[in-house]
Design goal:
7% of the residues lie in helices and 44% in strands. It is mainly beta and 171 residues long. It has one domain. Strands 1, 2, 3, 6, 9, 10, 11 and 12 form an eight-stranded antiparallel beta sheet that branches. Strands 4-5 form a two-stranded antiparallel sheet. A two-stranded antiparallel ribbon has the order 7-8. β10 and β11 form a beta hairpin. The longest helix has 6 residues. The radius of gyration is 19 Å and the shape is globular. The two termini are 30 Å apart.
Length: 171
């Protein structure tokens, strides 16, 4: 049996504001708190039309949601400026405007990463005695005009040696 190449352990997450034309420039969000990153989905609503007597005459499943959540350790001023929530040390808002691309690149060569071309970002500041300053980032995936929520790509050795982490496929 062939050994699987896992996309676990240390990962790199990059984001970029989607420009009016062209591809976004991706920027590393910083150091990620151990075991804080996860991709999850929610099942959509079920619509039913029920006739008298309880008979279901029509039923339709609606699309759910997909999101990536991670925690950044000691978020930098440059991250907060990139997100548009701060200038200098003054936090102006926690609302991140615009459409963003997010890319999660795994540590292991041959593992599959995720690239989501259209996301909104929720920024939540946090602090604890155990972990210091943190930023909890939630990336809510939205479908593109082509109907794509996200794509998988395979991390290549050349991406690791260059430090780019772009891999192949949806980069």
């Amino acid at each position: 049996m062939a050994q699987k190449i896992m996309a676990w352990s240390k990962c790199k997450i990059e984001i970029g504001l989607i420009p009016a034309e062209g591809d976004p420039t991706l920027t590393d969000i910083g150091t990620i708190l151990n075991n804080s990153s996860s991709l999850s989905s929610e099942v959509g609503n079920t619509m039913q039309m029920i006739a008298t007597g309880g008979e279901v005459v029509a039923e339709e499943e609606q699309e759910g949601t997909v999101q990536l959540v991670t925690t950044v350790i000691e978020p930098t001023q440059s991250l907060m400026t990139l997100l548009g929530i701060a200038s200098s040390d003054d936090i102006k808002t926690h609302v991140v405007d615009g459409a963003w691309k997010v890319k999660l690149t795994p540590k292991n060569v041959g593992a599959r990463g995720i690239s989501a071309p259209n996301c909104s970002i929720v920024y939540q500041p946090a602090w604890s005695e155990e972990n210091g300053n943190q930023a909890i980032l939630t990336f809510k995936f939205h479908k593109t005009d082509a109907g794509v929520w996200y794509s998988y790509f395979t991390k290549t050795a050349s991406a690791q040696s260059s430090g780019g982490g772009s891999g192949t496929g949806a980069g």
